[in-house]
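Record 1 of the preview.
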Amino acid sequence: MTACAIEGGSAGAAATAEPEPERGTEPEPEPGPGPETRPVAEPGPRPGAEPVATDRPEPRTGPEPRPGPGPGLSAPVRTGPPGPVPATAPEENPAPRSRVAAPPPPAGITLTADGAYAARLTAAPGPPGERSWYPERWTLDGPEPYAVPLPLDQPEEPDSEVAPLADGRVLIRRRVADRQMFSLLYPTGPGTGELLLGTVEHPEMTLLPPSPDGRCVYALAAGERGSSLWLVAGGPRGPEEVARVAGHCSGGTWLDREGRMLALDRREPGGGPVKAVAVDLGRWGEVTPLLQIAPESDDRLLLADADSGLLLIRSDAPGHDRLGWGVLGSCLPVRFPECLRLPEAVATPFAVQPGQMLMPESCAVALRIDGARGSWVGVWRPTGRRLHQFAAPLGWLPGAGCWSREGVLRLPYANAATSCGVAMLEAPEDVEPSCVTGRTEDGDDGTEPSAALAAPVVCKPVPLGQAPLHGAVRPD
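->
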């Protein structure tokens, strides 16, 4: 199914004035250029995309059923020690990467779908290049967050991956020669228990986000002409291959809460553009096209919300890579809001507010914004059409966080003063664009109004024991 791409208005992006640093901490990075910077001219949208008929009115006038994923699925447009190990390893505020060639550091931190647990690789203090890496589990759904180290007799390699399960155990993937080894780690009094799951004969594999059910973890083995999907935790017989997909696959986004429908970004074996497809694990890996914005555009799915059907998409259909949104199962076009296009910065969504049944336009979306001076946080709603920017807490693990149903964003961080902390940010209220700019809600040409100018503010960590009650609600 094809449909058109709608770009945002023509005015500039949100203002990015320098936030005021907290007392006793390092100054927060200045996020991006000031409001005077104007976006450069862009090439026009790719040809070949035509509008399609809508399958429901917009805006909504009442709840109506949303088609669930399945065959023919379509979209709008298309985480025992040899000696004492510190509970956590303090991390500095994100800094520019070193120019010296070195093994890539471990990824940040991975959260369970409900935000109860998180896992990451961290390291004991030491000189660069000689640090001992070990897994660490964070518990985030109690009165106070805390971290549990899970070291074994030997340190881990920095390219190992970890993922938390809903029962508190942590899956770890290790590369040994051309094999991938999988184990479950768990605390056992003063030591660490390990349950070996098995190995897979493949030189490269990547863990996918934990399944929404909290029990399963899948891994992707990608090749140029074919990719395989493996159930590496939660199965009855250790790692087992559950699906094969033609072409080179990447990404990995869950489309439902049962852990059955998985979206992957696929390039066909013969080459061509990247298109997101849906893999039905309940039908032995049946593949269905998901995004088809324009015939030659790269259309990737970044994030999806199972409750509302909101999809966050990156596509070059408008001329170059832009961040857009659509609705799962709808024929309405993908929109590319002007407020999400930031000069000299890149915005990437990482969390969507749950519980907004059949209300995708009302979901609060958290975005990681990366610029020349570091990373900070953005909050946006499709209806608000305004990007609110906040300086991240010192030591934030960029791109990590989750929403509560009430609209409170929880951001995990670790710094010299706090080894395991959670900063809480309540989603700001949006002002209707017509009230700010004096324009109507929608332009005559069908485009979205641009964002109102707003300066980012400092996101201050709040100890959970002192936080408001509604901020400590465990997200589903």
